Amino acid sequence: MTKVIFNGTTYTLPTSGANVTITSANGKLTINDKGAYSYTSTTTTGGKDTFTYVIADKDGDTDTAPATNTLTITVDDIDYTPTVTNLGPITINDSVSANYFSDAAGSITGNNSFASSGSKLGGNLTSNGVAVVVTQVGNVYTGKAGADTVFTLTINANGSYTFVLNKPLDHADKTNPDDIITLDFGVIATDGDGDKSTPGKITINVKDDGPTAVNDTSTVNPSTKTVTGDVTSNDDFGSDGKPTQAVTKVTFGSTTYNLPADGSNVTITTTNGKLVINNTGKYTYTSTTTTGGVDNFSYVIKDKDGDTDTSATTATLKVVVDDLDYTPTVTSSAKTVDETNMNPNTSVTGSVVANYFDDVAGSITGNNSFTSAGSKAGGNLTSNGVAVVVTYANGVYTGKAGTSTVFTLTIGANGSYTYNQFKPLDHADKTNPDDIINLNFGVIATDGDGDKSLPGTITINVKDDGPAIIGSTAQVDESDMKTATPTISTTGKVTVDFGTDGAGSVNGNNSFTSTGSLLGGKLTSKGVDVTVTQSGNTYIGKAGAEEVFKLVINADGTYTYTQSKILDHADPKDPNDVITLNFGVKATDYDGDVANTVIKVNVLDDGPTTLPVPSVAICVNNYEDNVYLPTSAYATVISMTADTTGQGNQTLKLVLSGLDPDWAFTPVVQSGSSWVPINLGTYNAAAGTWTLTLAPGENFDGKFYFKPDSNVDLRDITFTATVTEDGQSVTQSDDFNIIVGATDAAPMAMMAMASEPVVDDTTATSKVVSKSLANDNLPDYASVVETHDATQNAIDSFVHQTSSSSTVSSSSSTTTTNEVTTHAVTTVSMTDELQQTQHQVA
């Protein structure tokens, strides 16, 4: 409240809250800027004071029609009814006199006699229903009701006495508040020589104490249309006290309503309203009119011993109903929208409710006030960095960022409203995709006669739209690292939805973990701890100074993972146990909201499964199982090529066992056009073994010379190749014999053994060749070759090797031609020649 106007004078109310006093002919009004007031009447003749006031809302708007905002004070004609205050015990001082004639004066005392008469309740002397017993001790009469002293009479020797009444006596006449109970106390005079007088008495007349009712006035509260009170709150019930059932009847007009003793309510209906009252005196009056009026009710009260007010027609309850020109009220409303649901816009509807009371309904409109609060970027209301300006026209609030409409709020006259949002607002909390900006739109209700409500608010809570990002999982297999510069790589993409806030960026969030089959529980490469860092949009994992892997994340969410060194896996029994690398990635939308996810790269182990794995080639002289050497001469037995280049973390162990310690054994490698001995591997003559271990990336290409020390053959020489990787090993072996002193015949020339035409489309052709070759202990070979002319399809051919024996007695073959019209020619030949057989052990 800003000011009050009375009789043409404007009183400005201090914003400090200090009171202002306005004096009129009828009284004084004390009021402050909060609207709290008190009014004190200074007249008994009655009157009315009307004060006009102006109010303001939080942002300083004032009521545009202050002349209708009034405070009316009605001062009734006050006809005071005197009251009697209960001052406690009643004391009477008086005296009796004695005539001692010519004798010497003596004294006056009580003679222990007492009587009562008059208007005694039930014919007995009682106080609050308890019998009063009177005794004399010394010169004092005492009347007690139980333990309570009701009265005392003290008699002095000279005849003076004092009567004190401490408690009320129960009088019989309920209609007479002054009916009398008479108390007679016996006294006697004794002269100087002991003569006693005839008994006299001191009589005390105790008048009853009736209640006194005082008029009441109440004014109906215009906001609630009710007034409550208690008609006995200002009544005097005297020394008898107020009973529970204090009000016995109420009269309105010519009708008297007796109030039930059980305390139930009685309703009295008038043209202005309804009075509900019970025998305690408590009442509620409800107005049913807005035109104003006065209702007067008279009531009768009684005290505890049943006395009633003798002037009941003057004890009234006056209820004043002013002409109620109601000010409407409007309730506020709040709704929530989520920018996540903008496709292409988001909207919400609601309503505010106005109470026009008994006035004619009007309309609800905006009052051109707007504020915003909550999680605003930079403390300001913006959209994509542009300030939002809100205006109001023709029932519509419009928020614009430059020329772009960000939102509208349309308010209907009945209080319904629709909020539409077309562009996102810039929220402040980057860690919360649902932080809220509050938009507060002012509304006001106006009733049919122009009264305006205090402003209400439509609040729209706008939740942010955070980005959404879905992680990705990729896989690489270290088994693919088989080249001279071993690398494996994979690509993928995380799925990002930036929502209505618009695109921002995708990059790493500088978080990395590894899980799965980690050797020793940690991420290592060849025993060295792998440390992962993020630089820009790239994660790099290093073991010492060596790069092991890297992940490059692009702005569009695509990524590339590249691995150049193996990782140490834990399970030696599983060649495909998995280490999972978890790279943190985040999506940031236009206003800075962040969503996080993970790119998972599953790295499968490169464990050997079957051999051959490395490249190892062994050439054994002459034939597959037996090697023939001259006695005591160096000869090449084995040519070997072996390497681990491109084989990841593999090692290759080569072992020759079963060697004779007395034989000469020399590894040689080629140098130019010559073969030279080399100190390679470990030759254990006593054990008869030679061992060579190739580390990852190493190779060997050489020969082995043997020199027997006798004509004794060397049997069951074993060649073993063992591949080891990540604690896993796979071994494959082969064996051969060295035959000392054996020779071989010269190769035989190829010769045609038989030739004849065959009808290919009718029968199969079988040729049997029998030929005894030289007795040289070497295997012999028979070759069957089928030929045909140019018009025929291809015909199968093969080589058949006989078993090793001194004589090859026969060999055979069967061939079948396709259906053709010409004849095929089958040629069978036999050869005996020196062969080299290659064993591939890998």
UniProtKB/TrEMBL annotation:
Region: Disordered, residue numbers: 213-242, 801-822
Ranges where the DUF5801 domain occurs: 89-198, 336-452, 474-599
Lineage top rank: taxon: Bacteria
InterPro entries in alphabetical order: DUF5801, T1SS-143_rpt-cont_dom
Biased composition (Polar residues): 214-236
Comp. bias regions, Low complexity: 802-822
Listed NCBIfam families: T1SS_rpt_143 (TIGR03660)
Protein's name according to its UniProt entry: DUF5801 domain-containing protein
Lineage: Bacteria, Pseudomonadati, Bdellovibrionota, Bdellovibrionia, Bdellovibrionales
